[in-house]
Amino acid sequence: MSSRKFEIGDVFNWFTSAIQLAMKNPGVFIVMALIYAVISAVPLLNLAMIVVGPALQGGFVWAAREEEQGRKADISHLFIAFQQPGKAGPMITLCLPTVGLALVAGVIVAVMIGGALFAAASGSSSGAGLGFAGMAIGGLLLIPAAIAVAFMVYFAVPRVMLDNVAPFDAMKESFAICMANLVSVVVGFLCVGIAFFVVAIVIGWIPLLGALALGILGALIGGPSMYFAHRQVFGSSEPAQPPMAPPAPMDPPAPPAPPAA
Prior knowledge:
The protein has 261 residues and is mainly alpha-helical. The protein has helices at 8-24, 26-41, 45-68, 88-93, 96-121, 125-154, 156-163, 167-180, 182-203, 209-234. It is globular.
């Protein structure tokens, strides 16, 4: 694992570099982000996104590397984890922390709402109040859990996608990197989140289009930023090259000409 430290400004650079890179080939990256945003917004498909999300984020990472290293990104790169033998399984494995968090959140919400509704039906206003207070406390407890999940996944996606690191090793490594740079990660991502929230206030009121634009923007900078974070911490990586074929055997030398008569 790399012990490379980074600063708050480096986190900002990951996202600004992602935007600059996308603007070099906007057609491809915007279409990729649009596909990602639509899948995330469609009912039932958005549940599938919990599972396949890391694989599609890996597609953004791959496309970012191709574009940044002088090769052209392509829309098909969004699904490249499913096109490479043995890559889809490890990338999908990275969804496990998010799936676990979603299950825990679902149980907490169901228990708290159920308790509040039962208390309200029985005529106990204090019980209903306690139920909603418990739900709020449960929501607060989920915040550090969500942060931990983000820590486990952020560097793991490019590590598995680009470096073929085993998914569980990559998640442990990602969490350790984020903890070693805790202030930079928390402050940097908090500032980026606030900026995104401001943009959401400005355009989020537009019916449908506002939400779609926010989804596109999030996908457009989220995945490529993982590439630049990976590049800073682990250095640049090159796509695997197929093994070279062994040289063909040389023909045996021709026999010497017979002596002249």
